């Protein structure tokens, strides 16, 4: 690599939760005044986060350490007059005590540095090479580095000065390569000749039947499945991965969950119990599968708006449903096709998503394309109205991808699937670095050999639910909806008000529900029903469950600290029990389609999955 235009040195103060950054660059060829900037958002997380708010103690010097005035001109930009200096040195500190995948966190056991929240840079030097020196704190000799940056592979020791020396081809690669330094458990494996690394920070809860060794083996299977699906995996089109090395960073913390994709790495948060039960383990591998799949879909297969963008402002696209919806489908499908989970587990996960989608009134108002475009003000800025006004392009997008996959399989009798669409996206766009168009219908149609206009009109540009029940039935599975039998015990009726709650506090009121018609509001705190106190969510639920449809009740709430009585009418609840059952007497076509899809015989007459949603609302 040619000489770095931007040279960073990072030192850490764990007890103060601080990172101290020194940036040096030459002024030759730069306009005067020089402008330093810090990103306001990060790719993969579509919200203006204003990372410059974490910067403190910024000072600038020139030749011979002469002070240079740094004048802030907007929330994330500083203006510098070099005053003839040939090189400028910028020193600043960052407060880092927010443990997420998109912010910095430093404590006595580790330092996680997210690129956009860490590096000030000069925009004119954005396409130039970068060098980074990272020093482990004094007294932390056992700290190890994990990063996708060149020079950061496992086993690379720090230099004689105690610092790791890293490089990036440009600022975009730097910002897309987070750093983790700390006490970690390291594991390595290889897929199609490409080395993979897994760094685990945080103490795991012991016990259970799952092990890190199984996790490593399963990640190898998943990575090979992703690569085969995208690149072909045939003698004419051998398996290829889009990176030379890949690093998983897994940070374990109480009640933590989340992931963020990068071109050659991913940062993942999960709970310490992640290996103790089948449910938590499968949730972990699905998360890791999701972020890895983004190395193809999202980081390389992407629309123009997310391949070349301005870090200071929003980047709008109507295609986040392609990036996240397809990924939400394939992250899970890879677990099944790679043999990591059973067909039953796959059905359970799909059914849980389906039941959650049907509980969102906003799905009838917000299309997938509009949901994608509005991510900056809806998905990443949720409020009490989102339930009624929007739908997640992750949730609906994943279910639409599954329904579309099944439709393509059915209409071509197994000759094609959504895999063909993914491969076309990769070969025509992702592999060669060409953005795909905002309207992808024609590409989907060509790759599948089908006219998909009706599906796109209804489910992508429109607000209809994906035809999942019909497509599952064509593959031998019946999707059933009913009421939870426990609701109907002893002659009781399935009733509801239509509230979501946290404890006794109302967090949401579903449009068209009895609660909405009565005027109950988010923020209300339930305290009594028909003058009888309810001291817990369970007591409130039991009080409502004892009523009949159309029965009038009086709900007492504290609203802005004043006791208020609200007359309401109990309504008949929507379905609360969903089930996927294999058809008892399938047709030859249903059996054949299921076999081709799942790779095993249809278990005729058996129940594959059941989900109850009674506890999701009151």
Characterise this structure:
Strand 4 and strand 5 form a beta hairpin. A 7-stranded mixed β-sheet has the order 5-4-8-2-1-12-14. It is 26% helix and 26% strand. It has 3 domains: 6-182, Immunoglobulin-like (Sandwich); 308-480, Neutral Protease, domain 2 (Orthogonal Bundle), CATH 1.10.390; 485-572, Roll (Pdz3 Domain), CATH 2.30.42.10. The longest helix is centred in the middle third of the chain and has 20 residues, at 212-231. The chain is globular and about 85 Å long. With 618 residues, the chain is of the alpha+beta class. It contains 15 helices and 31 strands.
* Mean of residue pLDDT values: 96
Separation of the first and last Cα atoms: 61 Å
Please give the domain count: 3
With helices defined by DSSP (H or I, 4 residues minimum), what is the helix count?
15
Low-confidence blocks of residues: none
Quickly give the CATH architecture of the largest domain.
Sandwich
Largest sheet: 7 strands, mixed
**Strands of the largest sheet, in order across it?**
5-4-8-2-1-12-14
**Percent of residues in β-strands:** 25-35%
Q: State the name of the first-level CATH class of the largest domain.
A: Mainly Beta
Basic shape: globular
Q: Give Rg in angstroms.
A: 27 Å
User: Helix/strand/pairing class, anyone?
Assistant: alpha+beta
Helix proportion of residues, in percent? 25-40%
CATH fold-type name of the largest domain: Immunoglobulin-like
User: How many beta strands in the DSSP annotation?
Assistant: 31
